[in-house]
Amino acid sequence: MWGVILGILTLWLTIRGWRMGGPAQRMLRYAAGLGECRDKTWYTPVKGYTNVYNTRTGIGGFSDRVGALAYALTPLAILLAQRESFLSLVTGIPYQHFSFLHKWLGRIIFAQSFLHTLGWTLVETWLYQPQPKVYTDFLKQQYAVWGCIAMLFITFLTVFSTHWAIKRTGYEFFKWTHWIIAILYIAACWGHWAKLACWMIPSLALIFIDQGVRMLRLLALHTGVVKGGNFGFRPANAEVRMIGEGDDIVARIDFDFEHKEAWQPGQHFFLCFPALSIWSSHPFTTASLPDPRSNVQHHTYLLRVRNGQTSQLAAIAQSKGSIDTIMTGPYGLGFPRYDTQNVLLVAGGTGVTFTLPIAFAAIRQLIVPQAVVDFVWVIRRAQDLLWLSSEMADLKSMLADNVSLRIKIFVTRESTAHLAPCCDIKPVCGKAKAIDSEKTSNQSSSSTVSDLSSGAVLQALLAIDQPRFSVDFMLNEHPSMQTMVEDFIERAATRGGDVQILGSGPESMGSDLRAAVAGMRTREEVGFYWDSRE
């Protein structure tokens, strides 16, 4: 992007310089221009005072222009933050990928607002006389009061949208204060300078249009009128199970719900739990695949339990075992592409909800039976496989029939010795050695796994019963994304065809995978997509 911007500016400058004539002529023109643009300073007497003068410069005009730019950029900042994004409809880019631009555009608006405020503060406190009378009279004016309030609001929005602030105050606090303060900021800007309300009116309109479309989509999913049944709002009743222990607990949510239009693998829904808060919803990728033969679809989600609402959800799961759930969606892109031939899927932790359904879909729709599908899951502990035990058993069972599929599991915080008591697995020397066990293919199907105890299920999932299945224990280490990509490219090169690399998980993993993909050397077309877990 920066290459394009700098290239355009360079070309523009070259053409402009060529039109202005030779070097000598250009220097004369630039010198004349600088002379005309140089700020002039002059002094004017203050009525009623002797030896007291106002100092007049170009600071006021500069501050006004910077402030007007901040007003003009506000509708664009709102547009970049919309979930029901018009930009997504036009470009096909999912709404969440515009959040980066929204964040930085907000910081630019803050910087412009700060310069505008600083400029007029210097004028009213230093250049105009007598003081402090001029400044106190200035602050008593209504437009100045609203300007100070708007500056406080944009400062709040900037500070409390940083990762540091969100981590300490919680996502719910950030979400609702950001939305409310943004509206108050727009209103304060309107009050500060009503002649520029032409930028504030569309900003407010965009906010309420976005919220209105969200509500319509929610009603489309949950009301009987849209579904052709009896009138009424029907939330989904979800079963909630806690899996794991210590700091590695995940809530698995399962429910069945009627859909007229299902979702595509890799898409996500916003889930709201009215028992916790009717005003808050969070995006979660659906780990299950829709059934095209049925109107009733099964949903599976994984939520890592931390502080805030997820800890409250854990308490409800322990007491009731179920909770009403309201959905909005689906959102995001669907994968894999219809013409996909070779796919590398890399997931870290709960990012597997993005890659696992894509793996099933890729195997079912492969154009070339020999095409490569590599599924990689990096987890902290082996027990994390129990999050999606039946689904992983189904994927393992496909190894027997699909020679193109390969599954790699990396455990980063355990050694095989740690698992020996519960899984009857012999320890293997070395940090990154694969498990070696008896073949237990009869225990790999989901129907068998569901009837076993947790220890037996884990043993069945970890058993090396196929040559293209491996589990590597890497105590306090992480797998190399570079090695993983190179190995995949080498396999894909023997089969030929386009390559698609998809992943989801911690941002550090995404950065490593992105760097590895950038260094690839292949003649085939490569598609890359990282689904952020922030």
TrEMBL record:
Give the signal peptide, or none.
Answer: 1-17
Which keywords label this protein? Cell membrane, Electron transport, Ion transport, Membrane, Oxidoreductase, Signal, Transmembrane, Transmembrane helix, Transport
Cellular location(s): Cell membrane
Tell me the superkingdom of the source: Eukaryota
State where it is primarily located.
Answer: membrane
Q: What is its EC number?
A: 1.16.1.9
- Membrane association type: Multi-pass membrane protein
Membrane-crossing segments per the record: 143-166, 173-193
Q: What is one Pfam family matched by this protein? A: NAD_binding_6
Catalyzed reaction equations: 2 a Fe(II)-siderophore + NADP(+) + H(+) = 2 a Fe(III)-siderophore + NADPH
What are the protein's GO molecular function terms? ferric-chelate reductase (NADPH) activity
GO biological process assignments:
copper ion import; intracellular iron ion homeostasis; iron ion transport
Q: Name one GO cellular component term.
A: plasma membrane
* UniProt domain FAD-binding FR-type: residue ranges: 233-337
Q: Is the keyword Zinc-finger in the record? A: no
Family classification: Belongs to the ferric reductase (FRE) family.
Mind telling me what this protein is named? ferric-chelate reductase (NADPH)
